[in-house]
């Protein structure tokens, strides 16, 4: 059974909801006070109406505290009190029915609205049929209008709560996406930089052991790479990433040279997917240096595709976090990524974007 009285989602909402409910609940007390004013000379009616007000306050509190059983018990007591007041107040007693229906309808299933026309019809017909009084048109109008206001208020609460929950979900998803982005960027950025630092450090150590003066130049490049790695970390955390295909090709050419791998890389890099293809080249060349034990590496770039191939042994242990993160980037750009062994040997990483990606998908 739907319940409009689920607790609010924050202290501010609780405060606003409390005041709105207090205003609405207090407003419904006008109806028993109307009946009390018209039956003030009858002690039995006064006692019953005081009891009605007390039970109404208890029912409203039970509804606010989500005490469903207590609420329905008190609502039953209110109905009994209404039945006891009915022979005394006649048509005016139906103001009490307005309070009862207003409490019940928002907490019933949608089909519970059917009791509104039934109650309104009884309000009109019963005084005329039983006591030959005038039909209770005013009481019926008050019942219908009040129930509609209460239902609209309850629906507004539901919509407001749904919006709050949706906003919280959006914030949670945004936080998850940001954590994923930072994790992916740190892996891609630091993986490349630390691989380059390791390769150049090994090269500098070998050169120094042979007394080669180039060792100092390599150490200087290691220092520069370390500073760049620090800047990359700051860029990833702040959300700013300056990755271009031309820059990655230039850095990749130097990385392959330091690793002793013959590089066949294009010198020009034009096209609409500069950043995405830059990430592909960065991840692809990093894996070549780390895992492949290759002697040659080729990068081929076109307007809608980029391919990194080597003649090594391939990626050991299957795809890692780097390829998974790259696949996410490619999917977000509407592209398709293929990574696997090449023939007759080696490893091939290929990314296609645009119409050609759709062609690959349908093969």
Polypeptide structure, described:
By secondary structure, the chain is of the alpha+beta class. 69% of the residues lie in helices and 8% in strands. The protein has twelve helices and five strands. It has helices spanning 11-28, 30-38, 43-64, 68-89, 94-104, 115-131, 137-209, 214-238, 245-259, 274-292, 321-332, 355-361, and strands at residues 262-264, 296-301, 305-310, 335-341, 347-353. Strands 1-2-3-5-4 form a five-stranded mixed sheet. α4 packs antiparallel against α5 and α6 (115-131) packs antiparallel against α7 (137-209). It is rod-shaped, with a radius of gyration of 38 Å. The two termini are 51 Å apart.
**Sheet/helix structural class:** alpha+beta
Shape: rod-shaped
* Succession of helices and strands: HHHHHHHHHEHEEHEEH
Q: Reading side by side through the largest sheet, how are the strands ordered?
A: 1-2-3-5-4
The number of distinct β-strands equals: 5
Low-pLDDT parts are 1-9
The amount of beta strand, in percent, is: 5-15%
Q: What does the main sheet amount to?
A: 5 strands, mixed
C-alpha termini separation:
51 Å
- Classify the helix fraction into a percent range: 55-70%
Q: Overall mean pLDDT score?
A: 81
**In DSSP terms, counting alpha (H) and pi (I) runs of 4 or more, how many helices?**
12
Question: How large, in whole angstroms, is the Cα Rg?
Answer: 38 Å
């Amino acid at each position: 059974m739907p319940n409009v009285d689920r607790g609010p989602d924050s202290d501010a909402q609780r405060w606003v909801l409390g005041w709105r409910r207090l205003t609405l609940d207090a407003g419904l007390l006008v109806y028993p006070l109307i009946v009390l004013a018209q039956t003030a000379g009858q002690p039995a009616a006064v006692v019953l109406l005081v009891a009605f007000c007390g039970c109404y306050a208890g029912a409203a509190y039970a509804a606010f505290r989500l005490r469903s059983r207590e609420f329905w018990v008190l609502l039953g007591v209110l109905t009994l009190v209404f039945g006891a007041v009915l022979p005394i107040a006649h048509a005016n007693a139906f103001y009490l029915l307005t309070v009862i229906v207003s409490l019940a309808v928002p907490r019933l299933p949608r089909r519970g609205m059917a009791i509104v026309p039934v109650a309104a019809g009884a309000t009109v017909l019963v005084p005329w049929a039983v006591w030959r009084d005038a039909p209770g048109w005013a009481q019926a109008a008050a019942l219908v209008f009040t129930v509609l206001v209460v239902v609209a208020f309850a629906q507004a609460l539901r919509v407001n709560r749904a919006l709050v929950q949706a906003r919280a979900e959006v914030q949670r998803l945004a936080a998850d996406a940001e954590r994923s982005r930072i994790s992916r960027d740190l892996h891609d950025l630091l993986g490349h930089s630390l691989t380059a630092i390791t390769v150049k450090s090994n090269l500098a150590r070998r050169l120094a052991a042979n007394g080669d003066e180039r060792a100092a130049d390599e150490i200087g490049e290691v220092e520069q790479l370390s500073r760049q790695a620090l800047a990359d970390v700051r860029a990833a955390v702040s959300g700013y990433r300056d990755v271009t295909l031309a820059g990655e090709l230039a850095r990749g050419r130097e990385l392959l040279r330091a690793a002793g791998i013959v590089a066949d890389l294009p010198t020009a890099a034009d096209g609409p997917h500069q950043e995405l293809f830059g990430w592909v080249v960065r991840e692809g060349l990093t894996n070549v240096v780390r895992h492949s034990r290759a002697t040659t590496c080729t990068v081929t770039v076109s307007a809608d595709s980029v391919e990194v191939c080597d003649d090594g042994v391939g990626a050991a242990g299957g795809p890692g976090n780097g390829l998974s993160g790259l696949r996410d980037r490619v999917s977000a750009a509407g592209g398709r990524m293929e990574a696997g062994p090449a023939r007759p040997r080696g490893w091939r990483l290929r990314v296609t974007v645009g119409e050609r990606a759709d062609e690959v998908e349908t093969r």
